[in-house]
Amino acid sequence: MKLYYAANSCALACHIALEEAGADYEAAKLDMRNGDLQRPEYLAINPKGRVPALVTAEGVLTETPAILAFVANAFPGSQLAPLDNDFSFARVHAFNIYLCSTVHVAHAHGYRGYRWADDDTSLADMRQKLPRTMGACFELIETSMLVGPFVMGEAYTICDPYLFTMARYAQWDGVEIERFPKVSEHVRLMLDRPAVRKVLAMHT
Amino acid sequence: MKLYYAANSCALACHIALEEAGADYEAAKLDMRNGDLQRPEYLAINPKGRVPALVTAEGVLTETPAILAFVANAFPGSQLAPLDNDFSFARVHAFNIYLCSTVHVAHAHGYRGYRWADDDTSLADMRQKLPRTMGACFELIETSMLVGPFVMGEAYTICDPYLFTMARYAQWDGVEIERFPKVSEHVRLMLDRPAVRKVLAMHT
Questions:
Q1: How many Å lie between the alpha carbon of A94 and the closest alpha carbon of chain B?
Q2: For residue B115, which residues of chain A lie inside 8 Å, CB to CB?
Q3: pLDDT over 90 percentage in chain B
Q4: Residue A204's pLDDT is what?
Q5: Fewer CB atoms < 10 Å away: N or C end of chain A?
Q6: Residue A89 with chain B: CB contacts under 8 Å
Q7: What pLDDT, on a 0 to 100 scale, did the predictor assign at position B182?
């Protein structure tokens, strides 16, 4: 397998999951700022021009929650998701999809507002609101989603590297993560994991 | 099971899927405009204050792609997803997650821009860009995602009611769906299905 990623993009979550799974994979680093994602050779792999993309023996996969679920299924021995219970797995999915469609989207308004509006004043308006939107997301995560110590409780799952990735975004976006004790403890636990340290070193 | 929905919200996709699966379920209609989604009794079910929410014997599920996958797994006889192939199922997920995190998000900027910006001029800017952002999404769906006649090819899956729901949004957003032959044919095929007709009548 080959993971296309960009440093500190949301591909970090899949990258950590592959490492935790003990997968035999290659990581190919692209540079968003010099246009790597819009080159024809990359668009042939992922027509969306985004990362992550995971090239497997069966074809290319995109979208972080889908890749994370695939990794959990492909490496059942790593126990990265409750594979034997459809409802529990659906809860894992639902958490990751919230991160993808609400939290990551909120974050993107601070940097890529041009996706949805044209005027500089609109983009500035989005940027000034960013700490509030990301703060509201993490308030909800702290109070009604994160069981602790890991997202789903005692078991480490594919939710954890993705929350870790979004918690970094929140800090960059001006959210004082210390307001959220469970999230703060989660970040600390993640930083203790060898797989996380190894992958973070590849995202500098 | 009990599906909480609002007329013409993205809950339409889950509603159709439950119907196609032959599920024994109750549909509870909420009215977004009179604040049903923010009432304490609904927030106790779904703290996000959004629809859909599916109450199951094991607990509450949210997020359209997660609910759709759960329905496909819970009713294997209805063959709403390639349950025996992890990669193919991951592709189904990836398509639905694109609709959730990119297409539905683009649509929301025409109506709920206040989630990400404060000024009226910013919201107007988002609204004027809407036909272009939704048009670009459907261009990508037409050229690189929708196999035809259904999203994944000959087999009807949980991707189809969700694409149908987003294609309705695109039309409301000023996209001339006729520009996209495969999407137009998909809408026509969907409107022929008894489950779709039955559920649409409950979304007026």
A1: 5
A2: 106, 133
A3: 100
A4: 87
A5: C
A6: 73
A7: 98
Given an 8 Å threshold on Cβ–Cβ distance, is A117 in contact with B140? no
B2: confidence class by pLDDT, cuts 50, 70, 90 = very high
The pair of structure tokens assigned to B155 is 């087999």
SS3 category, A6: strand
Beta bridge partners of B61: B54
Chain B residue with minimum CA distance to A74: B86
- Give the span between the Cα atoms of B94 and A203, in whole angstroms: 24
B170 CA: distance to closest CA in chain A (Å): 15
CA distance readout (Å), A49 to A52, A75, A105, B65, B188: 9, 27, 16, 22, 30
Residue B122 CA to residue B65 CA, distance in Å, equals 30
Smallest Cα distance from A133 to chain B, Å: 7
Chain B residues in contact with A144 (beta carbon < 8 A) = 47
Write the residue in B58, B104, B117 that is nearest to A129 by C-beta: B117
* Cα angle value B175/B48/A141 (rounded, 5°): 120
Indicate whether A25 pLDDT > 90.
Answer: yes
Identify the bridge partners of residue B181 per DSSP, sorted by sequence position: none
Tens digits of residue pLDDT in A41-79: 999 999 999 999 999 999 999 999 999 999 999 999 999
| ipTM of the complex as predicted | 0.97
pTM of the model: 0.98
